[in-house]
Amino acid sequence: MTALLPALILLTTGxxxxxxxxxxRKNLAxxxxxxxxxxELRKDxxxxxxxxxxxxxxxxxxxxxxxxWKSFKAGSWxxxxxxxxxxxEKTVSEETETLFSRTAEKIVLQRKxxxxxxxxxFTSTDQEDIxxxxxxxxxxxxxxxxxxxxxxxxxxxxxxxxTKAAKESIGxxxxxxxxxxxxxxxxxxxxxxAVRQNRVVATAVALGGEKK
Length: 212
Hints:
Elements: E1 10-11, H1 19-31, E2 39-40, H2 48-59, E3 61-62, H3 64-69, E4 77-86, E5 89-102, E6 106-117, E7 120-131, E8 133-134, E9 137-142, E10 146-150, E11 153-167, E12 171-179, E13 187-194, E14 199-210
Parallel strand pairs: 1-2
Antiparallel strand pairs: 3-8, 4-5, 4-14, 5-6, 6-7, 9-11, 10-11, 11-12, 12-13, 13-14
Helix pairs in contact: 1-2
């Protein structure tokens, strides 16, 4: 990110000593060095949240996962086999993602996860909003098209390499996505790599799905 965007200069001379100002500085720094010529914080603390939101929109880039879902109707679903690797241990789960709603601003997914904990099956559910644009994506690159085999079938895929911002202690994550427009959500297979450690932290492969 720092190689792609100019440095962020905060012009804060004369601002009152409000704890929200310092928090705003931190939030703006996390947004990522985006405005050439500097950023002038509004003096009214009540407007700081609005400025942070404005800057987020300036940096936001189109979200390929939103684009992959937007052509499907509510009720479309995809089932994924997901493997996560943490501290050398692999956890396997089965996730079903169902399109709950869509607008021009976001896709809402409902996710049901079946995993095993202590030898016992465990089911959890959650909901995820996928925005049309997001500031968490640092870079999107296109790779060469590939044909892969999934569930005994050959599937032609276009490749996207998506680098996302640091998450907790892991740092930046690079996602390699094998994409096909006929699959709900678009992702036939994925591989997520922690850039700093250069290690795979998760993989996923589509097992099936249904278009509505």
